[in-house]
Amino acid sequence: MSSITHLNLRKLSAEGRLKEAIHILLTTKNLPEDISTYLHLLQACIAKKALVEGKQVHSYINNRGLVFAANTYLQNTLINMYGKCGSFVDACKVFDSMSQPNIFSWNMIISGYRKHGFSQQALTLLHQMQRTAVQADHFTFSTVIPICANLASLKHGLQVHGRIVRCGFQSNVIVMNTLIDMYAKCGSINQACELFDKMYQRDAISWNSMITGYVQNGVLDEAVQLFEEMPQRNVVSWTAIISGYAQNGIFDKALEMFKEMQLTGVKPNSATFVSILPACAKTGALAQGIEIHQKIFECGYMSDVVDVVVTALIYMYAKCGNVQKACRLFYKIPERDVTSWNALIVGYAQNGILDEALHIFKQMQLAGVKTDLSTFSTILPVCAKLGALERGMDIHQKIIKSGFLSNVIVVTSLIDMYAKCGSIVKAHEVFDKMHQRDVAAWNAMIVGHVLNGVFDKALDLFRQMYLAGLKLDSSTFSSILPACSKFGGLVQGMEIHRKIIDCGILSNVVVTALIDMYAKCGSIQKARLLFDKMHHRDVASWNAMIASYAMHGYSQDALKLFELMKQSETNPNHVTIVSVLFACSHTGLVDDGCKLFNCMNDSYFIMPTMDHYICMVDLLGRAGYLEESLRLIIKMPIKPDVVLWMCFLSNCRSHRNIGLGELVARHLLNLDTETDTPYVLMSNIYAEADRWVDVQEIRKLMKDREIKKTPGCSWIEVHKETRM
Questions:
Q1: The pTM is what?
Q2: 3-state DSSP call for residue 232?
């Protein structure tokens, strides 16, 4: 009868009818001991991940005081059961109770520690095992080596490697593959390459580990060469090389390789999609991104809602300007992690929908999602652009509570936010409290002072930075040169130019800033000399030189340069058009300006912005076409701002058109009551027409509204010192 019961228990276990089996086990009296039955029951618990039933079996064995309770095989099965059922603490208790754990016991418990993130404890266990008679096997090493890789601990990795050699596993392919991966992740790519070259037998994982290692260490050429030599490529190989091209900014090649991969019949996986989608995002290749989205759907990654893939899609759509699609995908994710929230915030921020970015940040907090470094470094620039000082200060408090105030990137973003919100004092407070200031933090402070018009302090910070021996970069120089431009400090600008040459930082950004500085300091010849020496001119360089000519009234030179720019196949942007329209405006080239304005959308795919309309109003107004200028304002698809109306009013004054001037002035005074410009302009119009009563009324209105006329000022350079 007892043998029948044991057979029945095994049968029920095999069929997955675990509750019935446990009931029979617990209710049957005087059931003889049978280790095979208990092993069957525990295996069924493992298959079902049935922790409660597993504990019942374990308790039954202990309570019966069975002689084989200390059986190593049974104890290993118990460790396995607890580990697979999610109770690692109980697995550890079983292991600790073992008098003589064997290699399987040690491997399971070391693997458990690794799985639960206790890397140091896993390494400690390995050392404990080495002090026993138990010999490590290939599974031990293939478990421990990735721990060294994750810790980026080359020291521990070398120790384990030495043990591998002593144990004679240096010819084991699995162990060698993990060693290659470890050395690559620890930054020792040469040692990884040496191991790979010495391998007598290599499998696909060997090749993939080496290719991925090269990519991770930025050695793309070697990765490509090895990829081409690989006898048979699989999805991991293709994904590694696609990722390599994408990480190195060679996005077109990444997209090309993705297409070639599919032509060879290799099906992409989630890692492939996560690697290729940023290439679409960075190049604005929305059409290709949509095709990849369809491929993801066909591969079944959308039906399963794989968060990492959907997050990459959100980022791609957002970067390509389709925020609505990104938002719809976001709300399809059942469990949104911090990465998916960050992707949506980035999407709104980069598309200029700043209020919505702040709203999503608030929703993220209400959802209880823990913010990370990326969240704060994304949301703080949003506050900066909006000038949302109070929101920025709230976020500052959250950063303190989250413990990120020691992170240089976050603190630099805080400095930048305070400075751009006009609170240079708060920016200083944050900067002064920094224990370690990197170049980016100094740069942020310099930019902040320039933006707030504290040019002398910006130059002082630059000197402190230089004397401190910090390595100045292109951002440092491109940040400080505008201070010379605004300060009128040609001598100081030339000194900085010499430092730029000494540092060997003559990037396009820096040279463009130098062109702008020399031009604004009145040395247009030096600006042109720098421009002509440039080997590769980007749109910013062309814009700086065109704007320089326009600013100094050399309109024909500006227009000639614009023609050269088009011949160089550099596409103009909205800034280029503003500069050329400005040049036309200041020399009365009405026909040229109107022609450019009317074709900018069709020829250059540039929609007119407020700046373009201001230039056109000024162009027509200066030439005396005030009525045409007013008609253009009325037909504008965007609401005219205060600056545009003041430009029109200024032209009314120039041409002594009191009627239109009065009409616009009344509108302006209703729009803006803080700026003195419309009051002064209208007062001057009345004064020039000898309408002194009206002049008195304007002055009285200014007094009633507490509007004070801003005194004029100039900067002059005397004996290398700039004074007001």
A1: 0.69
A2: coil
